Amino acid sequence: MNKKIAVIKGDGIGPEIIEESVKVLKKIEDKFGHSFELIYVDAGGAAIDKCGKALPQETIDVCLASDSVLLGAVGGPKYDSQPAENRPERALLGIRSLLGLYANLRPAKLFDQLRDASPLREEIVDAGIDFMVVRELTGGVYFGDHVTEEKDGEAVAYDVMKYSESEVKRIAKVAFDTARLRGKKVCSVDKANVLDSSKLWRKVVVEVAKDYPDVELSHMYVDNAAMQLCKNPAQFDVILTENMFGDILSDEASMITGTIGTIPSASFGDSTRGMYEPIHGSAPDIAGMDMANPIGTILSVAMMMKYSFHMENEAKVIEEAVGKVLDQGYRTKDMESANTTVIGCKEMGDRIAELI
Amino acid sequence: MNKKIAVIKGDGIGPEIIEESVKVLKKIEDKFGHSFELIYVDAGGAAIDKCGKALPQETIDVCLASDSVLLGAVGGPKYDSQPAENRPERALLGIRSLLGLYANLRPAKLFDQLRDASPLREEIVDAGIDFMVVRELTGGVYFGDHVTEEKDGEAVAYDVMKYSESEVKRIAKVAFDTARLRGKKVCSVDKANVLDSSKLWRKVVVEVAKDYPDVELSHMYVDNAAMQLCKNPAQFDVILTENMFGDILSDEASMITGTIGTIPSASFGDSTRGMYEPIHGSAPDIAGMDMANPIGTILSVAMMMKYSFHMENEAKVIEEAVGKVLDQGYRTKDMESANTTVIGCKEMGDRIAELI
Ligand SMILES: CC(C)[C@H](C(=O)O)[C@@H](O)C(=O)O
Ligand SMILES: CC(C)[C@H](C(=O)O)[C@@H](O)C(=O)O
Hints:
Chains A, B: Residues 4-352 form the Isopropylmalate dehydrogenase-like domain. 2 copies of one chain form a homodimer. The first copy, chain A, is α/β, with parallel strands linked by helices.
């Protein structure tokens, strides 16, 4: 198959981890006879440095004309003084919104080889950590009005957390569909005892659930969910939640699996075009030091194969290669534990690509 | 000293845990020659059952005329069908707001005796968990407009997350003052890379910090904070955050200390009148079974002594009594671990009161 992939290296460790993922893409091309046309475009700090704008029009155009987007990471303290609307993070939010990527899938799965890296006790880890966070990505307080104004002689700022029925409906469907292919359980997280948007959320989710009688639905308040992720993560199969809660809970979820360096993510909308990126940030403190963990990005490539290109087998081969390298005891610095060999970002990429 | 205390038993396990706390209050009265006048009033489900209203005017009046308020817990599935504005939770929010309790202090401290109950690994627990979450309690998305409306043929709901300069300023001061009496570090948690209210939050906190050159200030995004609480809780001294983030993070924080059953909280405003309550909920599933953990409420009484009545010694005596009972190996069911003796709520209350 021929596929066009827009590649955004981004900032900090972004370029390094993308480089290793490209090695993997090339190996998949060779091995399976595909042709991936990689089109490099800029967004975030790198784009600000080049042309002053965090999200140039060309980048949007190329993304829209591609079959999928691969992103490293954006942002860094260097850009903190940018005006709000031109911060690297805004570029990320802009792409999500302009491409209509309302669904964000973030797997929280503990690699057996990384058990020791989980901050949770062995008994809890033993019960298993393997769930998927389905986060709504283009609504809620991220995309409602943001206003700062003068009122009664002082500054007042507000952000609007907003959801419509149809926005909730489409993401709920994604969660139930995802659950059908997994453990058939959806836990919808909200704050319906306080928020109107959560009340609507819960009502619509209950409606959608009627079309999925084979999937078990439960509801949990977000504060309780933050606790349960530490106490008993084995109870979860699919967690469905809105944008802001999903941001918080998916980060907590990734941490309990040991290292956020290994967690990929997929964002998509109604078409097969998706954006794939590791959930970790741009880590400017270790940029250029060959210390970054490329696995989150490489597994994001695997998600791209599966979700955008329906290349199940290609995805599996990548995942297996990652598993093998971990089996052999190789770790980047962030995953270090007793009896393991620490290697650099490049060597990790080489070893994974080699095993494909 | 003579003090008037408004006592709200609430729902579920509320009445049981309040009963044990009252035993403690009586012992403190006797031992230190104080006189505590307890005025029982209703709020939440219990009030709905009696008079149809979750927050009767009489309750508000009595609270306002008291030196402090002691609350068990409110809410339960029985009241889920109440209209939004009459839910038990609304009574809680109403009291917080009407009494001007903008500051909520939630200590996250691991009792040495309960180390085994923490879901975190020993190495992490060994590093120590002892910090204070200072949560803004009368602003943000809890108290902005809540609207559900029909738009373009479908329901749309929104909630407004709003902060003014003065609201941020006063809670920031509480955090810095708290830090001064502790480890002299404040970590302010926000989502300033996305939200206007967070940007204002950060700006004001930075301003307030100038009056506290002896206190170290850092900033953290809320998603990262949710991770760091699991990864390295020892890094925190005082966490300062807005209402919703505080709800989520303080629950996560309490969980890592082992059991939410032991965590007290204090809410106050500009006067010494505060409201004191455990952070756990009404646990209707175990209500009336003599299984509840009264320690969170008893330690809330200790916080009342300290923060509202400036009775440092009385607070210490209560805390020490709790420590001794745990030392002796007594636990309520929720704290059970190897080599401990499980006792009921009443016996736990009796034993603690006896040691005062
Ligand atoms: C960088 C930031 C805007 C972003 C978000 O909050 O969505 C990030 O934290 C994420 O989770 O992808
Ligand atoms: C019951 C609920 C409204 C409340 C809150 O969210 O503030 C509770 O979770 C708390 O933290 O005290």
